[in-house]
Every structure is written in C-alpha cells, then in structure tokens.
Design goal:
This protein is α/β, with parallel strands linked by helices. The protein is built from ten helices and 21 strands. A hairpin with a 4-residue loop joins β13 and β14. α5 crosses α6. It is globular.
Length: 394
Amino acid sequence: MGYIKINQDKVNKEVAEQLKKLCPFNAFEYEDAYLSINAACKLCKMCVKKGPLGVCEFVETRKKTIERTDYQGITVYIQQKHNKAHPVSWELVGKALELAKKTNEEVFAIVIGDDVTKIAEEALEYGVNKVFVYQDKAFGEFNTELYANVIERFYEEYQVNVILFGGTAEGRSFAPKVAARLRTGLTADCTVLDIKENGDLIQIRPAFGVNIMAKIITPKYRPQMATIRYKMFDAPKKIAPIGKIINKEIKNISLETKIKIINEKRFQEAKDISDAEVIIACGRGFKKEKDLELIEPLVNRLNAEIACTRPLIEKGWFDAKKQIGLSGRTVKPKIIINLGISGSVQYIEGMKDSELIISINKDLNNKLFDISHYAIQADIYEIIPRINQVLENI
C-alpha cells in the first residue's frame, strides 16, 4: 500500500500540464498554482516513472506485521432502534459463537443508545460473554459520527479480532466509517463466514455482478470487519446467562458532531418478505403482468407474501423490495413456492435455506429442482388453475 506524493516546490503550470497529459486516468488537477491528485488515481506510477523528475514520488505505507495473539474477541454491533434490537444482530451473535469455538475466543456485544439495559440483558440470554454498554442521551438516535467515536474508543481499549455488523441500511452506512477510523478493511454483504484456527476471518461474498463468489482474507489487518445481510444465519437459542454486562464511561468519548437532526418523518414500515413465513415467488415464466392474477386464490388461501426474480423488477411489475436473491432479499420462510423461475445462482443463494421448497417449471433441467423438496414439471398456466380448483373444494 502507498500513495503518490507531489513535491509542490517543483510544480509550475508547465509541469502540471505535462502530468495531466501523461496520466491515463485524468487524476491530476491544477488550481490556484496547486497540483493535486483526485480519486481517479489507480497508483499506476506512470507519473513517477515518466513524469518530470522529482515532482511525483511513491511513498510506501506498509503496515507493520501484526501479532495475531494480541487481538482477541469476536464482537457484534447490536443495531437497535427505539430500544429494540434488529433481529440480524442475534443472527450475527449465533455465527460469532460458532466461530469462537474454533479459535477459543470470547464473544462480545456492543450496545449503544439511551436506556438500552434490556437489550444488553437480552444479549446475555443469547450466550454473549460480555456486553459493553455505552449509554447517554446523545446516543438516543443513531448518529454515525457519535457511534463511530464509541466503536473507535472501544477498539483502542480492547483490541478485538473481529467486528461484525448487520448488512442493513444503518450497518452499510456505519461500518465503512468505522473501518476508515480504524484504518482497516471491510468486506460488505458477506454470505458466508468462517475462521481459521489462527484467527484469520474467511469472508465470502458475491463479486463481478454476482457471477463468482470471492473469498477474502485480511491476515495483516485488525480488526477484521464485515457486514452480513439479514436472514443469512440462524439466531442461537436463548440460555441462562453466563456472561456479564459492562457499563462503560463515556467521558473520554467526543460527543461533538456536525450532524443535526432537524426533523424526523416516520413512514409506515412496509412488510419485509424476509420475515414472511409463506412466499409465492414468480419468475419470467409469467408472460404478462395481468397473468399474475392467477396466483391470487393461492396467495389468499395460504396468507402468503408475493415475491419475484430480477427480470420482473426490470419489467416494472414489482417493487424492488420484493426481489429474492443476492441483489435482493434473503429469505428463510417455512414454505416457498417457485412459479416459472429458471433458478439462477443468485436466486438460489437467496432462498436455499427455506424449510420447504416447492418448484413448478416446465423445464425438466431446471436448477431449482435440485434443491426442491417437491418439484412439478408442468406449465404454470396449466397447473396453477388446477391447484386453484383443488383449493376451492377443500
């Protein structure tokens, strides 16, 4: 790792123009007799090798080798709103407990807010060894600056090995700020987590348009950080608490912030298909939007939620929140019925852990058939009316 340093005492307008023409990424900007490099720089070092002598130089910023045994503890950030924890937090606790068995580490939870003692007590019931609680009125509403100050202070004090965040809207905005503060990496939207005996976290996530699954390991950096989407793991069963709550002083944490909540407008929360117990999922086997009316009797009888694949989102038939898959929602319903869905890898990864999978498709080689508990090879336009007829007679 490193950066390009510009020696401004050797810069003039002519030199600046030479570098601007030389750079293949248009990364140089010259304004008010000052030459700077913008975010387009790819560190190709062309300016160092072929630019005016001595103007640009590459500065190595290698981080010193870490001693893995100095970093102990798998930590979960407990996301909460109005003193109610998001379920993804407990799922991450379950995964943290599983990982900790391999490395013989403790599992920690961090709870930030105002009057969050009940959440801390609930964390103990899920088997956490220690819950670190940071309470103050200033933490009553989520504030990415103030919350980042807390995590930064926590890490300075405890030097933990891993910190996990939920892949929610809050987690995706918060975790990158924390990673920047701690000068470490962050793997976003992991779908699989594992860990080596030496404490190196194995983070697996979709990449290149969800065409491959990338395995990411950061052996030279701590803490190791990742965000994990909701419904990827199972929450552990509650037990008699064995851990303890540690209420932390906040006098050494800055409460200064440039963020000010001027007004808050609460929208009625839409039902999330991730929480549905029964889902009927539709794919491109439906030729017209009006044809979706065929599934209404089935939806009503099963009290199901309707979901879809990406092609139907692109056609404008559904809201994007109804999409299942790695680029949509991950679901684990008790029953999912797949209608006219081809079964791409992205879709299968988003629903493969459903308790009961029923798939209907006229293609005998449909990939969903490989993971389905019940598979029906048939045209949905022929089979759905017959199912509706059976329902009417029940």
